[in-house]
Amino acid sequence: xxxxxxxxxxxxxxxxxxxxxxxxxxxxxxxxxxxxxxxxxxxxxxxxxxxxxxxxxxxxxxxxxxxxxxxxxxxxxxxxxxxxxxxxxxxxxxxxxxxxxxxxxxxxxxxxxxxxxxxxxxxxxxxxxxxxxxxxxxxxxxxxxxxxxxxxxxxxxxxxxxxxxxxxxxxxxxxxxxxxxxxxxxxxxxxxxxxxxxxxxxxxxxxxxxxxxxxxxxxxxxxxxxxxxxxxxxxxxxxxxxxxxxxxxxxxxxxxxxxxxxxxxxxxxxxxxxxxxxxxxxxxxxxxxxxxxxxxxxxxxxxxxxxxxxxxxxxxxxxxxxxxxxxxxxxxxxxxxxxxxxxxxxxxxxxxxxxxxxxxxxxxxxxxxxxxxxxxxxxxxxxxxxxxxxxxxxxxxxxxxxxxxxxxxxxxxxxxxxxxxxxxxxxxxxxxxxxxxxxxxxxxxxxxxxxxxxxxxxxxxxxxxxxxxxxxxxxx
Length: 476
Description:
By secondary structure, this protein is of the alpha/beta class. It is 48% helix and 13% strand. It has 3 domains: 135 residues, no CATH class; 96 residues, Rossmann fold (3-Layer(aba) Sandwich), CATH 3.40.50.20; 192 residues, no CATH class. The strands form 5 sheets. A 5-stranded parallel beta sheet has the order 5-4-3-6-7. The chain has a two-stranded antiparallel ribbon with strand order 1-2.
């Protein structure tokens, strides 16, 4: 970001720069209204076999319109249009789920109050379809938003405040996640140092220069928030100016669900909960893995038979390849894959040809891979037999990358934390670049998942995996 481009941002009023945000919220309202209307109309038509019907003397079309409007109101009351959560994480989807529960409770109470002749199953079906359709449309909208942000559009412009090291770290972290929509355009430093954005003053100047640099967000980076008086005065100075104030604590790879604020006599303390490795939540994940894994395995049986036959017909050797991997708590297990290399290729491994860093071995144009194997790898079809590992309990649907015993032997204490959970058929590493990632990013993503996993995060990763497989990026 050059001084010239920063000046151009400054001449654009904040309200005009955030026009995309208002348009996005209006679009979400329309999509939610459509979801409410479509679900209500569809359910009533199915219930009455397509005949025009009335409820309490009112045509079902009016009931559908009323249901759509009420649905939008409930989503709004549940915080579903909060600009701070739109397009980020799982909180947006959780609030839609809360709205669906409230909608269900409202319709059941209305049915009792008006003694409507409608079964509870019909009401439940309407609300379920309404919630699922809304979630699907929100997900599509998020995909469009993230695509825009990858091209630098629909972004919040951030003025970073802190030390040079903390500002550099913040710029790097936000650069890794463009979908978050935060772009640092300038910095106010409490010390001297090189940063990749223009320096426009000290922390005490932040309130004065925020409009000059065209920022709509101020982010206190790391130790920049240690001066409580500065943070308090900055908050006062930004009141009524439509500028967000964010504090990025000096915590790495700790996600929101583990963070909470504990106010103790006007001293807010940021509490970090322990990661969850046992208990009911972990039991639910195991049940989720085995049930969904069993369903996926049954559905994939026929394609797996066809792939196995093709592997046998196109090259010598068995259809399946077994390999020893290390699982939870360091226990070794046999992992299954479709053979994608020529028979005996494992004995031809040449470390000097390795194109990856760290403990990984990757070769983009690996001569040991069969022509069919390249297709299987690009589409991740060679990993379908690992569903059996999931059903057996050796692996999870989502988790860290399953490591080799030789890799584990070289792990340090921090990297060894990857073994606190089961390895995954897919994971953050799979949806963030696959084989294109350097070793440090593999470790960072795996440790982030270990510390912050949740079932909702698993669902998002599974959806993103499907997109990554279709695109075939980073797979070889």
